[in-house]
């Protein structure tokens, strides 16, 4: 499973990009981009994967991702409702980065710094919806920028904000740290042979030391993270291809069908065939 680089569209006469994302359901590959991103959920629920963490979302919630923080969404297959969300993407270096040095924008600056780990806002739509409308639709460019700053300040004051634990942060860089190298190894090779021995060697640790390190960093054992990554890959193949389940099983990295089915039911609450049928019926 690749962590894909997403090129955010650039538009003339605007320093940020905002749009409404609508579809039968959200199901994207894990991706990253240099822009900060705010997603406000209007309809539909499901799971948001932020680097090594998974959170449940529902209508009214919002997530904020810092630059190059890998993330994706997977809508619930049990809902017969379209997924819809407001999305805003902007560079941290907007106005050369000097904007965030203004004392009036100190709260906004702290919010952006915190978003490097990922932020989750529960039931925020009621206090952010009007500002979104102004950000997207104001008839003047200055008005749209002012509305964006107002939205950031509103989010910075939100009582319902949760800063995701430090451990899952997987920032893309040309000189990745050992945790990032290991997670890239898992995501890029999950359909093939992945071993804890190879991961430990990559991190420059003994196997026992690496297992303790990984669990301390991500709050879950290495093998559990690997299995979840393979299940995510299987879900994507089930939705996007017509490959038989047994082919999906082996392509996603499992060695036998019975173990694949058992793990899939444990983590998705239904067998692979039913997951595919439910998802394509939406």
Automatic annotation (TrEMBL):
Domain of life (superkingdom): Bacteria
A Pfam short name: AraC_binding
Molecular functions (GO terms): DNA-binding transcription factor activity; sequence-specific DNA binding
Key words, A-Z: DNA-binding, Transcription, Transcription regulation
Signal sequence annotation: none
Database matches in SMART domains: HTH_ARAC
Membrane-spanning intervals of the chain: none
UniProt domain HTH araC/xylS-type: residue ranges: 180-278
Claim: Coiled coil is one of the keywords in the record: no
PROSITE patterns cross-referenced by the UniProt entry: HTH_ARAC_FAMILY_1, HTH_ARAC_FAMILY_2
PANTHER family found in the cross-reference section: HTH-TYPE TRANSCRIPTIONAL ACTIVATOR RHAS-RELATED
Name assigned to this protein: HTH-type transcriptional regulator YesS
Organism: Limihaloglobus sulfuriphilus
Gene from which this protein is expressed: yesS_2
